[in-house]
Amino acid sequence: LASSAGDVCQRACASGQPRTLHGTARPPGLGGSSWRPRRVLVLGPSSSALGMMHWSRAGSPLVTPFSADVHPNMTALHPRPSLHRGDGSWQSLDGLWQLAIEHGVPSLDAPPVTFATTILVPYPVESALSGVRARAVDWSPSANASRRTWSACALWYRRTFAAFPPAAGGRAFLRFEAVASAASVRLNGVLLGVHEGEYDDFSFDITDVQCEGRANELVVGVLHNKTTGKQDHSAFDRPQGISYAASSGIWQSVWLERTAATVTINDAFATSSTLEGMHLHFALSSECPGCHVAVTMRAGALTLNASAPTMSESVAVWVGVPARVRWPWSPSSPHLYEYEATLLSAAAVALDEVHGRAALRTVSVHAATPGGQARLLLNGKLFFLVGTLDQGFFPEGLYTPPTDAALTNDLRTLKDLGFNAVRKHMKIESRRYYHHADALGVLVLQDVPAGVPPAGVLAMVRRCRPHGAVVGYTLYNEGWGQPWGAPASEAQVREAVDWLLRADSTRLVDVGSGWHQAAGGSVLSSHSYPLPSAPSCVGIAQPSAPNESRGHFAVHNCTAHAHMSTEYGGLVVCPNWLGRGEWFDAGHERFFGAYLCPGYARAAGSAPCARAGDGINHSSGAGWGSCTCSHGYGTADVEKLMARGGASAALATLYSSYTARAAAMGSLSGIFYTQTSDVETEANGLMTYDRLLKLDASGAKQIRGANDLLQSLRMAQDQLT
Fold it and tell me: 523, 508 in Cβ contact below 8 A?
């Protein structure tokens, strides 16, 4: 903030009339230059004061069991557990806010006067848990519009809070974990700044802008003018294929934090090139001449102490770990070392202290022997990844899980089924997600969501690198956003890979998951449905059958990459086959109107519903065949086995046959089954969208056994070769 900001605020606080700083009429790049009349949309009960606000969950076709625990006064959990300063240092601003949605206003020039709706933060406005569940007509400049016009609306959030003053010499910060996608933030009428990016955390120093002795007014304007990953603006009311409803507005936590000094530790993460110890890296808010960071780490009954002087705005502290307390992190033993780090001035005065956890873990690709194939190494030992494609959507919260327990439930379910990894697909999660993956021992291969700019990729790296569970990144998925066809395309991809590795050289990189592979990176992957496949090392792949690997693969150093099947399976088990409701079916037309799903045809009269082109009568069998939008693979195989033993047995039997096929592919270092749970129209999850496991006890045991056997067989094969 400019120095004048504090003066303006202090005068405003004294007079009780907050004012906007001169020269900040509109956020640069986020609004038009002309003023226009405001038309504020009323979506819920009107309230003139925050104390009068009421919330209830909006209607939703499906909800998970965790929705019952959602309410405005839920106990707040620290949104950044990998770097925290203790209970008294932070305060959550999650909860009830006021909301206004403006028709025909594609800018954040100035807040509206009226905030007529209540919203529960941090749930997206499209979600049921927000209490709003905005529909297409809510977002469009015309009340008669059937689809959204995203360039013609603005979201405005408002709430008040009591001042959160730091101690003398300290600072106070307002922090946002993620807002989709362009945000303008004002406190007491002062424009703090703007931010663009759907997954990035960002902060403002509010020390001189918050006012003590009265309520502080916080107003956040949002334009969801760009979506990334698998979000689709039109999917909310026109479900289709593999794109889903978008998540707009504040969708991760908002919180206040105070520090004891002006120079602070802003980031912390560990790296290990050997298992003899680790470097703890700390980024400072500014230079600190003569300062040093002292670390105290607990290792069982031992206390490990180390320190190092600051260099410019960073410091790396080497912590040696004695052999008797050397516990490498792995899915079977996810040990984490807890530590405190203190930033000390040249006079040995403590300026800041943070608490964190670190994993002693290495990941690499073992060079191929002549005529052989490179292998994945975890902690210097051969390792095989058995994971799922995981998209992180929830029916009542969309991008935002209902509760913290909902996050751990997905991870625990996968662990119980014998999986040791996830490919986090086209979404960057909250820091609590990676925190739980660390604690539970679930490896993460993190996608860069399609459409995320370079600044967003750097933000992703900063979010992921404190977590040992994250072992790699996927730069492109099936060529989405990847340069293709131009003579310089491979050079462009190589440049992007090098740029990512400069940000984080300690993890694996799959350049083009299931697609064209430039010479860079350390992983080569294939996609195929429903059977798993191995990447091709013979140039351009031309699949002659559906189960062959799709995509294009370069031959450069092919065997020097770890090979993986990063998408396969996708076996459809429709929820209605299990007696469960579905996301878009005839029973839910009260939410979506009389919608006919793409790719399906409804026969006249009472004839069965059939998916166009597959020639299968989905009414065969009791309870089958309601007209749904279920999407997946292997329908004929699943239905054939269902007729013999039910859905659970069919899914488990086919899955086991696929892992047996993967075990016979000697080149693979990992496989990822599609997918953890159903998502809207996709019915190919191991769980339904509302998180019911599609397997009975016998089926779950069979899949667990298949995963354990696959890992054992591959380890034995690799040891022999």
Answer: yes
